[in-house]
Known about the structure:
The complex is a heterodimer of chains A (215) and B (431). By secondary structure, chain A is an all-alpha fold. Chain A contains nine helices and no strands. Helix content of chain A is 81%, strand content 0%. Chain B has two domains: 10-266, P-loop containing nucleotide triphosphate hydrolases (Rossmann fold, 3-Layer(aba) Sandwich), CATH 3.40.50.300; 278-385, CBS-domain, CATH 3.10.580.10. Chain B is 35% helix and 20% strand. In chain B, the strands form four sheets. Chain B has a six-stranded mixed beta sheet, with helices on both faces. The longest helix of chain B is centred in the C-terminal third of the chain and has 22 residues, at 381-402. The interface between A and B is medium-sized, with 19 and 29 residues. Chain B: This is ABC-type quaternary amine transporter. Chain B: Residues 395-431 are annotated as: Disordered. Chain B: One of its GO terms (molecular function) is ABC-type quaternary ammonium compound transporting activity.
Amino acid sequence: MSFWEYVGNRHAQLLTDTYQHASAVFQCMVIATVLGVVLGVLTYRSDWAGSLATTTTATILTIPSLALIGLLIPVVGLGVAPTVIALTLYGLLPIVRNAIVGLRGVDPALVDAAKGIGMSRAARLFRVELPLAWPPILTGIRVATQMLMGIAAIAAYASGPGLGNEIFRGIASLGSANALNQVLSGTVGIVILALLFDAVYVLIGRLTIPRGIRA
Amino acid sequence: MPETPGTSNGTDSGTAGARAVSGAGIQLENLTKIYPGSPGPAVDNVNMEIKAGELVIFVGPSGCGKSTTLKMINRLIEPTSGRIRIGDEDVTDIDPVKLRRKVGYAIQQSGLFPHMTVAQNIALVPKMIGWPKAKIGSRVEEMLDLVGLDPGEFHGRYPRQLSGGQQQRVGVARALAADPPVLLMDEPFGAVDPITRDHLQDELIRLQHELRKTICFVTHDFDEAIKLGDRIAILRERSHIAQFDTPEAILTNPTDDFVSGFVGAGAALKRLNLTRVRDVGVVDFPTAGMDDPLESIVALLRSGPTNEVLLLDPNRRPYKWLRRGDLSRAKGTLARAGTLVHDTVTRDATLRDALEAVLTDSAGRVAVTGRRGEYIGVVDMETLMNNVHELLEADRLEAAAQEPEPDEQDRPDQQDRPGGSGADGAQGGTA
């Protein structure tokens, strides 16, 4: 069976897997973004807290994904839970780091001006600092998404959702007729998803970065 | 400044054309800032009374604490001890966010938020204090107009699409948007080129003449201080006040070596910047129209006190200087006779500009013109010399008359405060 015949035959299953893959990455990215930005906001003012947050998230990233998921299974069981936890943890580092760098990079004179014209602490954060730090934060989100696309495939090892199932099935039946097609369709699907997400981020950037600070 | 020497207090003199004072007085009492971990105070026991509607300059060498003192007024830096009073309200302990919304703040390099348009930047404070939308919209246009930017053109621009000078104007517009009685300016013109700075200073003078806010202005440029200030506070280290007085008094009567060192050389020349041509007399000069018959011009030259007449063009603008000698070579037509007028000064020019023009003129005089360039009179070396002598003499007399009194900032209280800004610090025993 050729690759295209395989895709034609199995398109229903492939679409479900693709959808679940995208959905898992998307949801984990939302959680990681919220957590990452909050962590960044909480720690950027202090030298040691900032380094602590960056180092911790960097350490998590060095754990091989297969090992992390393997470690999570005895704790939270199989399925969705270990997938979501692992993906969220891996997504944190680029976002936290870019949030801290972005917030620290805001011109202190502007923060001073914001204070001077009577903005409260919250107004300063939401109306001045975060909007100005948004371009680097968005870059962090973009990098994290690309990374999660690949890592999400490993989640199938813990019976998680997504295109990883396709790849793992192929690897398990190496030598059989459809093994290569299975691995290939899973991989190509992930690459296409990654490209689609990236296109969406370009669009989001266009829509959310104010014209005054767009590069 | 449009004030004539001798009336040092512009708010009391009721200068013609000036609007009602909209500012509020500021009093600093024993204001001190000690940074934790530093041996001495950064600002040590500053006492100062700034009258409503006055433009006061803090000037001093870098690191003298002038900026720190300014930032304590809106409590960007919290004072370690001492009281701050604005109008008749003690603001030392009120919510700093609320305080800052009532105090305009303009800084170097404008501090405009790059992600907001010009209009959004200006609208920030009115929005925070809850003005209705329509009022904010019209206020933004009004403020742009006030600082000399076309609202239609600049409304929707982002700060990076503006020149440095334009950004600074928008910065001032933003600071004034909610009509605060007090405006703090921290070296606002420090980062623009000299020509733009000069324009911005002129604009500020005009603005202040219209608005009569109470303005505290920090600079390290003494010439800027002289140009702008109603009064100048010369600060030395730890914000100690070396002298707090009018520019005239500081120039003619510096209290000590520190002040005279800071004033620098050429105090008499700097004094010339403070007086305008319209404040001193101009002399009349025989004039004739350029189309007048030759005979009448000859007759004028014969009968006149000088051997020279000034020819005016049909719009009465100075056109040519004509000497008796030129006439003999004229051969019936004036077309080639005389020397063209190449330099004039307006009535608003400073005496320094006038002196410059007189010095560069071969015959040592320069024509003074009105608003549309029409002839008004002539200034020559002799009038200038006499005027400067009189000015300096008057300054000296005034300084001598004030001598026995203690310094402004040490005077207990009871200055007659204009603008009805109420209670003085006499009852301020809360500290």
